[in-house]
Amino acid sequence: MSGPLVRGAQGYTQVHFGPGYDPETDVYYFDVTWEGTLEALRGLEANLRAEGIAYQIVNNGPLCSLSARLPQEDPVDQYSISTEATEKSIFEFPDAIFAAQSYDAGKPEGDPTWRSLAEDAIRTVVALGGFGTVPGTIEQLVVNHLRNGVTGWQVDFVTLRRTRRVKRAFAFAVGGKFSLDIGLLLYSSAQLNLPADVAFSLPVAAAHPVPSEFLWAWRKRGQHTDYVGQWIEQSVELLYAPWSLLFYDPSGDNLDW
Questions:
Q1: How much is the mean pLDDT over the chain?
Q2: How confident is residue 9, by pLDDT bands cut at 50, 70 and 90?
Q3: What count of other Cβ atoms lies within 10 Å of the Cβ of residue 159?
Q4: Contact call for residues 139 and 104 (beta carbons, < 8 A)
Q5: What is the Cβ-side half-sphere exposure of residue 234, based on CA atoms within 13 angstroms?
Q6: pLDDT tens digits along 199-243
């Protein structure tokens, strides 16, 4: 039964992939077989020869097969953790969101919303219904900020970037390890399967509460793969932030990266 088409290659298919271990040399390896046209397999042959890996090509009629034993190499991973400053609207401040939801839920149809009252209050000395006049309330604080020209605030979100570098022959052997996606899934820190010393540096809990339609989670938001000679390097960046559950879904599986 044919295996998946090896990503990045045209004209041949991986039909066998078997990990193994040699106790005499204490070496783990992969026995891999590809099938395809001889012309296509010649390109893979060149990669194997450059790596000094033994192989065998057998002509099976219109298609040929190429078999090789590849050493199992641990990918070289590099992690980078940083923060990224993001500008947010004053109406995205958690206390303002909760105040608006509470106020709007109790009003009949046709009444002005919490936000519209706050925006109107910057153009009048006394807002409709005395909105924003009670000292110390979130309404007064928001109105005062808007009147002073402060329309937003800044928050630092944590970013995590992993860069993986492996030899081209090894990347092909694992059959599509370097794949990109559109980043619509959300992950918890536990679903990232990080080394303990890296996971230790990540946030352990949400920075502040958010409405129920949002979720503090990690989301892929930047990915690229570079092919440099006999090496393949992939960088994946994730951002820890409150993501809308309208646009993104929590993943039921761990992140496969």
A1: 83
A2: low
A3: 18
A4: no
A5: 15
A6: 888 887 676 788 889 999 999 988 888 887 777 888 999 999 999
Does residue 1 have a pLDDT over 50? no
Helix (H, G, I), strand (E, B) or coil at 84: strand
Query: Considering only CA atoms, which of 164, 182, 184 is closest in space to residue 174?
Result: 164
Q: CA–CA separation, 210 vs 206, rounded Å?
A: 9
Tokens standing for residue 226: 């570079």
With 0-12 / 13-18 / 19 or more C-beta atoms within 10 angstroms meaning exposed / middle / buried, residue 181 is exposed
Which residue, among 121, 158, 127, has the nearest Cα to 237 in the 3D structure?
158
Q: CA-CA distances (angstroms) from residue 15 to 55, 117, 148, 175, 187?
A: 15, 66, 68, 10, 32
What are the φ/ψ torsions at residue 95 (nearest 5 degrees)?
A: -65, -35
Contact 216, 202 (CB under 8 A): no
Q: How far apart are CA 61 and CA 49, in angstroms?
A: 24
End-to-end Cα spacing for the chain? 26
Q: Which of 36, 63, 58, 30 is nearest to 172 (CA)?
A: 30
pTM of this structure: 0.64
- Cα separation, 222 vs 172, in Å, equals 23
Strand 185-187 vs strand 214-228: parallel, antiparallel, or unpaired?
A: antiparallel
55: left (phi over 0), alpha (psi -120 to 50) or beta: beta
Q: How deeply is 51 buried, as exposed, middle or buried, from its count of CB atoms within 10 A (0-12, 13-18, 19+)?
A: middle
